[in-house]
Predict the 3D structure of the following.
Amino acid sequence: MTMQPESPLQKQLQALAAARTPLHMPGHKRRICPAPGLGCAAWDMTEIDGADDLHEADGILAQAMQRTAALYGSRRCWYLVGGSTVGLLAGVRALAPFGSEILMARNCHKAVYHAVELGQLRAHYLLPPVDPAFGVYGSVQPADVQAALEQHKNIRCVVITSPTYEGVVSDIASIAQICHAHGVPLLVDEAHGAHYLPFAEPLGWQGGAVAAGADVVVQSAHKTLPSLTQTAFLQVNGTLADDAEIERQLDVFETSSPSYPLLVSLDGCTAWLAQQGRAAFAEWRRQLNDFDDAVRNLCYIPALCHGADTLQNHPDFYAFDAGKILLRIGSRGAAFLRQNGFEPEMVRGDDVLAMTSPCDAPDTLPRLAQVLQKYNDTAQKINAPTLMLPRPGSAVCPIGQAVLQPCQTLPQDVAAGRISAEYVWAYPPGVPLLAPGEEITPEFLTAARNLQSAGTRLHHSRCAAPAQIAVLQP
């Protein structure tokens, strides 16, 4: 493992730890390491004098977050130790007062739905088109945002995901302009796009939400950058988002005992990006280009926007993140990858997702190309129909009301026409196929059966049995 230099925040915490004997948390007292390899116990501490307080930062944590904001070009940045989930919960709650209306893409992460539920919000949906070749959502269309804001005059914020889990990017700049013309803030779930930095634009990672003018941007640093799991950024631009309200909501949703090792991880990630990011991203792009050349002649392995497949083949995509490699090889192909030493990020139906980052080993993508060439020699093209995502049924009542009403459990086969009392999703990516308060349609039931037949596990928020579903009592 490559060891990075100590970040400024780590050096400051080490100095504090060495100066005094701890009569405070954590209980390991910087003497008893919880597990081999967790050397951070030597400077893992709490909000003592000089260590600052994440929830009222005005010292070393404020300085660290300012360094990250400067790197991304945002007005302000908050460090998150509860992942993008806590940023989405706090961001939605800060922008949309209790009981108000929001406009959100139907392919938002379940955390956005939970924010809708907790805030008793009424959600109006943007339905991105579905790509027929791979069965994934395309880009949110700016014209749809314009039409929805003209139709629903009381919208308090707009929420979209870009890039999506599979790598589809929306035209954030145009959508932000439309939102601002209506005086409505735009929140972008950029959990899978923390690598969309200003210095990455010349290398092809264009369309980042911060530079495009989104008001609130939530990014999972741990997904594509060198930061520990559970770490994320919340970035703010413009004047439509109230900093004080964001801080209040982070105080509600985020732990009051944030992990200093996680905070150092974010500062260290920032330092790595500032010092080595440009060279690392250039090498990442070179490796991705070489991978495309190596898989261009594969006959039986479609790869979304890679190899012979181009962005022009997908008219519903505004742009695509080349760091995501979505393969149509199904569970058999995924098993072949595992047999040859690779573990994919996701297997859903016939789609298998490989995630790359600027931190991959130099031989990772060349070896992946070789394994795919080997599989291509024995594979047969998948001719089964793409497992299309179902259009949602009519929302009979808001999510927050539906989860509080009495419910009953029914076999899925007889549930068509009833109103759902639960969420149903495949995780990953955690996008609800069905939400509480929605009518259960035959289209949803067909999609659920097809996904389960292809080996995809569907998660229910209330029912434990996969062949059953929770519905509102009549």
Q: What stands out?
A: DSSP finds 14 helices and 17 strands in the chain. The CA atoms of residues 209 and 429 lie 20 Å apart. The mean pLDDT is 94. The radius of gyration is 23 Å.
